[in-house]
Amino acid sequence: MRQTINGADFRRLVISAAASIEIHKQTLNDLNVFPVPDGDTGTNMSMTIHAAAADLRKIEDPSLEKAASAAASAMLRGARGNSGVILSLLMRGISKRLKGAEECDGVLWANALQEGVDAAYKAVMKPAEGTILTVARLAAAKALEAAGENSYFEFVHEAALEEAKTALANTVNQNPVLKKAGVVDAGGKGWVYVLEAMLSALRGEDIVVPEDGAPEVKEQASFADFEDEDITFTYCTEFIVSRENGNDPDELRSFLAELGDSLVLVDDDEIIKVHVHTDQPGTALQEALKYGSFVTVKVENMRLQHTEKVLTEQEKAPEIAEPEKALGVVAVCAGAGLKDVFANLGVDGVISGGQTMNPSTQDILEAVNKVPAETVFVLPNNKNIIMAAQQVDALTPKNVVVIPSKTVPQGVTAMLSFNPEGAVEENVEAMEGALETVDTMQITYAARNSDFDGYDIHEGDYLALYGSALFGTSRDIKVLLRSLAERVRDEGKEYVTIYYGEDISEKAAQKAADLFADICPEADVTLLSGGQPVYYYLISAE
Question: Are 17 and 197 in contact (CB under 8 A)?
């Protein structure tokens, strides 16, 4: 039984854990209990921990402190979604406790696990039971108990793992949503996979992804090898989708070849990576969804700016714009129309992302650093992006303020309350206060069969959300639009804005707007092309 580990051991443990998460990524994604297509826990955790594995592979024979520090730094910058951010915070706490240590025994490891839990809980505003936080907390507590009995690293880690498994099994009873669906928490299961893989590596049974080289392709997520060409089409469109079915990538290649030029498509068993110049980025992205969910997306207007080179394997210092004004704003959204809305409202930068396409902390950091302002406000516009955005402030000399907008309409309303000449505190109060003045309605589709909140949901059904709650389901989208309009009328709303998505024609969208105008004669109804994926309609009412 191993008594201690050193830096080289820690390196192997993290790389093994990254491989395990990659192998089980789809299992974690499939644990999504809400039938909206946001099952990305596995993808987010995989992208986050693979950032650490990629950096650790570049370091030969590291000290324990260096290995832990490199892993924590890479995971923080690569963190995606709430599950990825929490995973990075667990590693940050572990790294902090291992600072200055040459070896780690069971006692130090138990305290490191506990410090990771403390860091994660500190970052979560309202921790809920039955999540990855619960699993990590109980595992760390068991590790501390075991360390009092035996100081061997392996003994303590095994005790933590067994307790994590027990805690995971109980998450189904702690969270009402999990209990309704009859599944355990996806993030908690991911943490169990991490601890299991670490123990396997400790015992000389390193976990590896079956297909050699697949993780490296995903970790790099780089388009640096694409050369610049003369601009014939407007948008440089780059994305990575995870391969989740047997659809032939050659068909995607043929489709995109007809849509634009400068096409580069690389595929393997895990991902499809695409670079194409086109005038129809929304059409390209919609077609790509037939092959799997997005891992990364970037769309740039080449007529307005040069495409920036992404980070190479050698770490580069971030380019930080010198302040030319006091305040600036960046926002997250998907869809050319929505980007135009935010640009017209005065946002300095827009990050491509949203549901199923969560940008990483690094993505948000780069956007913030480009803004020539002393203080930069960030509008995440999605509840699963808020935590990633909150990590940026510690990574830049700029003052970063995250306004916790959970939807695009909330972000738009916040921008309407933004005063570029005002004080930071005044803007925080005004923008956060504005979030509560708008009701958000969304219409999307069900990704799978489910029984949720008393609704018998079938794959392919239209789903209407009012705020964060499921409002209704139907095979006829008009039924849901009418019900939402009646709700808006009954609540006496005065202003309605309808953003229609890339799958909705202008003619169909106009009929939806006419429906709202007929049912809500006292309201001012505005129709705008949002061009957003996933959601057929985003509707705000004030």
Answer: yes
Cα–Cα distance for residue pair 527/337, rounded to 1 Å: 11
Global pTM reads 0.67
Quote the tokens at residue 135: 């699993």
Closest residue by Cα to residue 407 from 349, 334, 480, 485: 334
Beta strands 399-402; 349-352: pairing state: unpaired
455 forms beta bridges with: 452
Q: List phi, psi (to 5°) of 446.
A: -85, 130
| pLDDT attached to residue 311 | 36
Q: What's the CA gap between 41 and 49, in Å, rounded?
A: 12
Return all residues near 446 (Cβ < 8 A) that are at least 6 apart: 35, 36, 457, 458, 459, 460, 461, 462, 463, 473
SS (H, E, C) 352-395: ECECCECCEHHHHHHHHHHCCEEEEEEECCCCCCHHHHHCHHHH
Quick one: which H or E segment has residue 487?
helix 477-490
Closest CA relative to residue 135, chosen from 175, 97, 99, 108: 175
Backbone angles phi, psi at 327, to 5 degrees: -125, 145
d(CA 169, CA 188): 9
Structure tokens at 116: 């990771």
pLDDT per residue over 142-195, tens digit each? 999 999 999 999 999 999 999 999 999 999 898 877 777 778 899 999 999 999
- Alpha carbon of residue 325 to chain centroid: 30
* Contact (CB, 8 A) for 189 and 167: no
The amino acid present at 263, given as its one-letter code, is L
517 vs 447, 468, 493, 497, 500, CA distance in Å? 31, 24, 12, 11, 16
According to DSSP, the β-strands at 271-278 and 325-333 are unpaired
Which two tokens mark 400? Answer: 């970063």
